[in-house]
Amino acid sequence: MSSQNNDKSRARLIEIGWVLAGRFSELELDAIMQARDQLQDYLRASFPQFQWQLPLLYKPAYFRGPSAEAAPLLRDGLRERDSHSWDFALVLTSADLNSYYKAYTLAVPSQALAVAVVSLSRLAPQSELERGQPPDAPSTVLGRRLRALALHLLGDLNGVPHSDANNSVMFQPDEVSDLDQMQDYHASEQDLLAEELADIADVRLEEEYTQPTNLFVFYLRATWRLRDEIRSAVVQARPWEFPFRLSRLTTGALSTLLIMLMTAEAWEVGMSQNQPFITFFSLTALSIASIFILKRQKLLLRRSRRALTEQTVQTNVAISLVVLLGMLTTYLLLFALVLSLSELLFNARLVAEWVASGSKPIQLS
């Protein structure tokens, strides 16, 4: 297996596995084959320094009904990517992906997992006008849109920034019809993607070890080697939006703080602590809360039956940093809010008398 991986690396082979999750109509299957062939031809012409393979894998058992959550499909794609040693996995489904921020979702990429999920449910032309003049076959339009979306997702998985030019495949489509205008990578985007792909085609850390290695040492070396990719994945996840995305968690924490803000005991305990203890306690609370979220939501990849890989390290470290930074952002936001409220509602003399008064009435004058 190791020699096969080394041969793959020397040949600079890039594999993008296409996982067909569930059932598809004849029109969709025809469009998928067209898009795959067009994508492979484009990649071979635009990036001749790499060998490209786009294997197809049919998985009818992954059918999840007329609508589906992206997260389970991402996990399915990760399992197949690891099993077949692909560089990327593209999971295709005919189901409509559930969306919580927009009216609908065409695709969900995960740079940390090197997997993207694509829904075909809205890509087919809905009117004759969308088929152009003279009208193209519906499968041709669907295949063309799928090709554009696949190129866009390949850029997303490699950290290529979005473009404002609607003819670039890195344009962020707001409507399905936007895909009809997206043709190719611009020169700067193509150069950046080529650099990222060159790193992917290099020999991976797990391929350098012929003997089992220490888990901590492997994590340390892989984290240092993948520091740029980890940083890019963290930035893409935008942990600073954590308090607003998890609004229920933020609301629960805020309501608890507001109640404590009105109790003399909380003020007395807080004012009796020194700065080092408060700092230590805050860091401990942040760590425990982050670990709880990681465990409770099962966000970390387990080694289980597959060997430890660079991708596993990248994913686990990036997700851990996202959660930790998200919790830190929430902590700082709540701290600033409570500090502002305390300055606004309670002056220093009132707080001092409140804490010192015990059961005695507070004298304001």
Explain how this protein is built:
- The protein is of the alpha/beta class and 365 residues long.
- The protein has two domains: 2-201, Collagenase (Catalytic Domain) (3-Layer(aba) Sandwich), CATH 3.40.390; 210-357, no CATH class.
- The protein has 14 helices and eight strands.
- The chain has helices at residues 2-10, 26-46, 70-84, 138-157, 187-201, 205-208, 215-225, 227-237, 242-245, 247-261, 264-271, 275-296, 310-345, 348-357; strands spanning 13-21, 51-53, 56-59, 67-68, 88-93, 96-97, 107-110, 115-119.
- Strands 1, 2, 3, 5, 7 and 8 form a six-stranded mixed β-sheet that branches.
- The longest helix is centred in the last third of the chain and has 36 residues, at 310-345.
- It is elongated.
- The model is unreliable at 1-9 (pLDDT under 50).
Sum up the structure in keywords.
single chain, 365 residues, Collagenase (Catalytic Domain), 2 domains, six-stranded mixed beta sheet
